[in-house]
Amino acid sequence: ALERALGVITEVTIRFALDALDAGAHGVFFATQLASWRLLSAAEYERFGKAYDLRVLEALRGKARLSMLHAHGHDIMFELLADYPVQMLNWHDRAAGPTLAEAAPRFGGMLVGGLNENATLRSGPEAAIEAEVREALAQTGGRRLLLGPGCVMPIAVPAAHIAAVVRAAQAA
After folding, report:
1. What is the C-alpha separation between 111 and 82, in angstroms, rounded?
2. pTM beyond 0.85
3. Terminal C-alpha separation, the chain
4. Which of 108, 10, 5 lies closest to 57 in space, CA to CA?
5. Which of 34, 53, 54, 162 is most buried, by the most CB atoms less than 10 A from its CB?
6. Burial grade of 90 (CB within 10 A; 0-12, 13-18, 19 or more)
7. Are 145 and 115 in contact (CB under 8 A)?
């Protein structure tokens, strides 16, 4: 029954994403909250998560100009996600790992991260934000990196802190 329900959810997700792309969306942001060693074993995730994720992503291959996977949570199963057919991969690199430097050789696309959205980006100070940007760029050599938060950016992040990110990136 569970796998039948997951199949239905997968088909609905595919139809929704294709409809969004047909309506003019340029890309897809696909998130998983189950790819965590705290929640499932590798075998469980392969069976109940990845198999369905890949059906969605394969159905969208070549139709979306941009595709990004967000792995939510701590202790993510990075090695099980690194071969997903997406152009960009985002996760809580500051809060949970792996680091950008550790991830770069394991994923061939663009890494999205480097900024701790719940600590540095929200609370500052600006000098700490700028240091975090420089450190993220150093980890990747400035290649295949889109600076961004590890998850959604809290609405309470001050505009001055976003400006500090831009300033530091431009100065690098």
Report:
1. 11
2. yes
3. 53
4. 10
5. 53
6. buried
7. no
Which amino acid makes up residue 77? Answer: M
Residues 82-134 have pLDDT tens digits of 999 999 999 999 999 899 999 999 999 999 999 999 999 999 999 999 999 99
Quick count: other Cβ atoms within 10 Å of Cβ 131? 14
How many C-beta neighbours within 10 Å does residue 167 have? 15
Quick one: tokens of 69? 């996977």
DSSP label of 104:
G
The token pair that represents 98 in the structure block: 């792996």
Is 38 in contact with 72 (CB distance < 8 Å)?
Answer: no
Please give the single-letter amino acid code of residue 52.
Answer: Y
